[in-house]
Amino acid sequence: MATTMKLIAKTVLGSSAASVTFSSIPGTGYTDLVIIASLRNTAGNGLGSLRFNSDTGSNYSYRGLRGNGSTATSFSSAGWVSSFGTGYDEALFFDVVPSSMTASTFASTEIYIPNYAGSANKSVSISTVEENNATSAEISVWAGLWSSASAITSVTLLPDPFGNASNFAANSSAYLFGITKS
Q: Please, what CATH class does the domain formed by 3-181 belong to?
């Protein structure tokens, strides 16, 4: 059985932008979705967020790991909600290069969404790598769940999950692919 990736949509920012949205995602023709992104934040925040179908409710949960070669940390939506309050269960997260890191560097992120049009909750895997030249390098992996039986028809990437003044920097890019199995 051959698997094929087909480009559905792409965004390459000519100037900074408050979000990247893929809308009108077809409900048929594909089994899974993949987003490949290269992102940088215009502010100091190193955390971006992902929302489906403009859902800002407490319908997201996740677990993650982050490592930089000398230190590893783990986190979960339950832990972050209890430590920092609501907002940490209203999106899925991924890492973004903040403005404080080396100029013109971007985080490389892959978001995989299997069975995006099915009638069950949606699982998501997210991996990001980023570096600050010789100073540091980091990888993070997230396993997420969107607790909704709705088909995913739109995906929005945000440079800051909490509405702080930031944007994705110019030259950030995101590509949406559909996966078919024949």
A: mainly beta
